[in-house]
């Protein structure tokens, strides 16, 4: 049995009577009466443990906790468990990590214990604020709806975010640090960043938003610090790429629908039309972090941190809204003369937080004109209404490879003589070079041609946002697909998985098999991509065959190699299919053998696809093996639907119905896996209708 609370945003009122709003701060005296064989935890240290009898004469334990600091109701918390803990002290703050007894015994939480203290110290030093509590408990919960919760003094996490198994090769410290809990990739959760995120939010607990409409102040700032923290622990990470890739790019893909809300909505609007829970979304986390990243970029990190420090000091133990933050930044800007802004901090930032969506910049390099409009889907009739939102936009740029001073676009269109290009085809311009702008760029044809040439001669130029933008512009009807493909001709020379991933994301659909029906496109795509993919495929296949451990430090290989291999196998690259059968056969010969984690999903799928019932039965046997982890099971569940013989798929679906073989929630998962495969589509439909 286990009890753990999650009171954000509005559940404290279900535990005790209170004015349950973030601006109502108080101190709390908590006492818990519980079964003697359990331990009770709360925000503060326990100061007394005694016994009492109830009317039936049963014995209970009473745990009383010290009075809390002044804080919001949603941060109060309690856990009643029979867990064990490991502990260490950092600058007088006792840190304990609690988890199931066997997990503690096996050392699964040691890593978390080792990094929590240093992160605390890093944040204290960076923000010049000392952590106000005497103890900090971090609890790993086997089942928890939120990813984690920053209750003051008693943080709760999903088990996967606090533990890792020392035996697992992939969880090299660097990968742990580097990968954000990246669900799409199903890799192990990135402890380090998660940690930073929640530990920074503890500093955020000092200053709470006035009300939930400014939730992004808590969450967006924390997401930004998550990344600063990661570079502190792991300086070799190329932070700008990881940040753009995990945070900016996904939200740019969402923040362009008509109905998407702005980052900071008025209180009335939220009370009228949103549920509070819906505010805990990617606009709050990712857009909040992206805007913060852009702000820190044009202010410089030094000034930004200086402003934050004074903001945290002034509002400790009270509440603030976004205008309070702008005021503190303005004070810091006014006190120096290196950074000059075209308008007040509030005017600049309100244009990003109070309007929905984001701009696309359109360039005409013959005249040197840059104009802006809201980025909306031109193919969608409703979105052609004129939206006259304008933003105050910081533009980082380079000319012919060398960086230029920051420019500002503060109206709908403006002429910048410095960006006019000459007749020479070697004269080119690239915008948003440091990836910190929250906008897209639509270049004129002339410049795109020149950029395509540059890529062919020097594929190392800052190209991620360039390629991502042209595909997004294509998808939304701003430019033709041919224009975007011009920029991919050079790909045979592209050796970064980070870039390949964005290309594959745009050219190769999520549902691979469904595309096979598109008989006009598939063979062309196959021919076009395979030819260009071979060099990078063979480069990584070499490591997989000879020395996979060498990839342990390659962050992007940890995250994206799977997509590259899956695409190569899907396109029928012989070597990829051969490699998959070889590794799968090796596993069948010796079940102790571990298929390289980086491509395990692909290898299992194609090992079964290329094989017969022998390969399938082995997967089935391993699935039912008591030792297999949840992740192993998930990979095999998916792989067994890759079989190419229809009777195997019929049998698999039939197994899926059986209560004795599967828990009932697997039935629909199996059907979903089968239905996305080319031969499985019809089989799954027949099966569903027969067994309705």
Task: Explain the layout of strands and helices.
Elements: E1 3-4, E2 25-26, E3 31-34, E4 39-42, E5 46-53, E6 59-65, E7 71-72, E8 78-81, E9 84-90, E10 93-99, H1 101-105, H2 110-127, E11 135-141, E12 148-149, E13 154-158, H3 159-162, H4 173-178, H5 191-206, E14 207-209, H6 215-233, H7 239-252, H8 267-273, H9 282-299, H10 301-315, E15 318-320, H11 322-334, H12 345-353, E16 359-364, E17 369-374, E18 393-399, E19 402-409, E20 413-415, E21 429-431, E22 440-442, H13 445-457, H14 464-475, H15 481-486, H16 497-507, H17 521-546, H18 555-570, H19 574-589, H20 600-610, H21 613-623, H22 630-639, H23 646-657, H24 665-675, H25 680-690
Parallel strand pairs: 10-11, 11-13, 14-15, 16-22
Antiparallel strand pairs: 1-8, 2-7, 3-6, 4-8, 5-6, 9-10, 12-13, 16-17, 17-20, 18-19, 18-21
Helix pairs in contact: 2-5, 5-6, 6-9, 7-9, 9-10, 10-11, 14-16, 16-18, 17-18, 18-20, 19-20, 20-22, 21-22, 23-24, 23-25, 24-25
Features:
Neutral Protease, domain 2, 692 residues, membrane, Immunoglobulin-like, 5-stranded mixed sheet, globular, alpha+beta, 4-stranded mixed sheet
Structural overview:
45% of the residues lie in helices and 15% in strands. The chain has 692 residues and is an alpha+beta fold. It has five domains: 2-81, Immunoglobulin-like (Sandwich), CATH 2.60.40.1730; 101-202, Neutral Protease, domain 2 (Orthogonal Bundle), CATH 1.10.390; 205-355, Neutral Protease, domain 2; 368-489, Sandwich (Immunoglobulin-like); 512-690, Alpha Horseshoe (Zincin-like fold), CATH 1.25.50.20. Helix 18 (555-570) runs parallel beside helix 20 (600-610). The active site is at residue 184.
């Amino acid at each position: 049995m286990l009890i753990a609370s999650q009171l954000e945003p509005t559940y404290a009122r279900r535990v005790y009577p209170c004015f349950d709003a973030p601006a109502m701060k108080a101190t709390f005296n908590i006492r818990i009466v519980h079964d003697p064989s359990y331990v009770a935890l709360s925000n503060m240290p326990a100061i007394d443990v005694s016994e009492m009898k109830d009317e039936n004469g049963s014995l209970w334990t009473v745990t009383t906790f010290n009075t809390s600091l002044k804080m919001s109701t949603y941060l109060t918390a309690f856990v009643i468990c029979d867990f064990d803990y490991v502990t260490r002290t950092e600058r007088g703050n006792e840190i304990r990590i609690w988890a199931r007894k066997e997990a503690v015994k096996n050392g699964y939480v040691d890593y978390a214990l080792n990094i929590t203290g240093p992160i605390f110290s890093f944040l204290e030093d960076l923000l010049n604020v000392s952590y106000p509590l005497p103890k900090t408990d971090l609890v790993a919960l086997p089942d928890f709806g939120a990813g984690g919760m920053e209750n003051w003094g008693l943080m709760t996490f999903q088990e996967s975010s606090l533990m890792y198994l020392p035996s697992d090769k992939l969880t090299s410290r660097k990968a742990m640090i580097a990968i954000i809990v990246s669900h799409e990739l199903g890799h192990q959760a990135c402890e380090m960043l998660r940690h930073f995120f929640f530990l920074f939010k503890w500093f955020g607990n000092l200053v709470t938003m006035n009300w939930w409409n400014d939730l992004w102040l808590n969450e967006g700032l924390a997401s930004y610090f998550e990344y600063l923290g990661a570079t502190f622990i792991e300086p070799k990470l190329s932070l700008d790429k990881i940040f753009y890739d995990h945070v900016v790019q996904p939200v740019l893909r969402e923040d362009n629908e008509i109905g998407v809300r702005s980052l900071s909505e008025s209180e009335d609007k939220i009370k009228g039309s949103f549920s509070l829970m819906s505010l805990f979304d990617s606009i709050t986390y990712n857009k909040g972090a992206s805007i913060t990243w852009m702000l820190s970029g044009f202010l410089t990190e030094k000034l930004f941190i200086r402003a934050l420090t004074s903001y945290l000091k002034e509002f400790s133990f009270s509440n603030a809204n976004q205008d309070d933050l702008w005021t503190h930044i303005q004070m810091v800007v006014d006190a120096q003369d290196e950074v000059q802004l075209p308008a007040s901090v509030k005017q600049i930032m309100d244009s990003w937080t109070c309007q929905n969506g984001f701009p696309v910049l359109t360039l005409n390099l013959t005249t040197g004109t840059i104009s802006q409009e809201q980025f909306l889907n031109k193919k969608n009739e409703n979105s052609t209404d004129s939206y006259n939102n304008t933003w105050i936009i910081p533009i980082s740029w380079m000319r012919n490879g060398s960086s230029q001073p920051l420019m500002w676009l503060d109206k709908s269109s403006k002429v910048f003589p410095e960006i006019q290009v000459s007749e020479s085809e070697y004269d080119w311009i690239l915008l948003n070079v440091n990836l910190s702008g929250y906008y897209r760029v639509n270049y004129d044809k002339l410049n795109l041609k020149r950029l395509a040439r540059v890529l062919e001669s020097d594929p190392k130029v800052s190209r991620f946002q360039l390629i991502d933008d042209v595909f997004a512009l294509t998808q939304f009807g701003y430019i033709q697909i041919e224009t975007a493909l011009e920029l991919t001709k050079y790909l045979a020379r592209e050796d970064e998985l980070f870039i390949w991933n964005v290309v594959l994301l745009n050219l190769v659909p999520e549902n691979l098999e469904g595309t096979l029906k598109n008989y006009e496109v598939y063979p062309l795509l196959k021919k076009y991509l395979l030819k260009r993919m071979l060099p990078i495929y063979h480069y990584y296949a070499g490591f997989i065959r000879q020395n996979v451990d060498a990839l342990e430090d390659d962050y992007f290989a940890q995250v994206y190699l799977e997509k590259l291999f899956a695409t190569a196998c899907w396109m029928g690259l012989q070597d990829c299919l051969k490699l998959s059968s070889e590794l799968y056969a090796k596993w069948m010969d010796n079940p102790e053998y571990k298929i390289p984690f980086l491509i395990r999903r692909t290898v299992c799928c194609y090992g079964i696809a290329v094989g017969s019932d022998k390969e399938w039965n082995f997967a089935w046997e391993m699935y039912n093996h008591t030792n297999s982890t949840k992740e192993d099971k998930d990979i095999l569940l998916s792989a067994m639907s890759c079989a190419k013989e229809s009777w195997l798929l019929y049998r698999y679906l039939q197994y899926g119905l059986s209560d004795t073989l599967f828990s009932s929630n697997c039935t629909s998962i199996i059907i979903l896996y089968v239905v996305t495969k080319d031969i499985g589509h019809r089989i799954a439909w027949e099966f569903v209708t027969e067994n309705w």
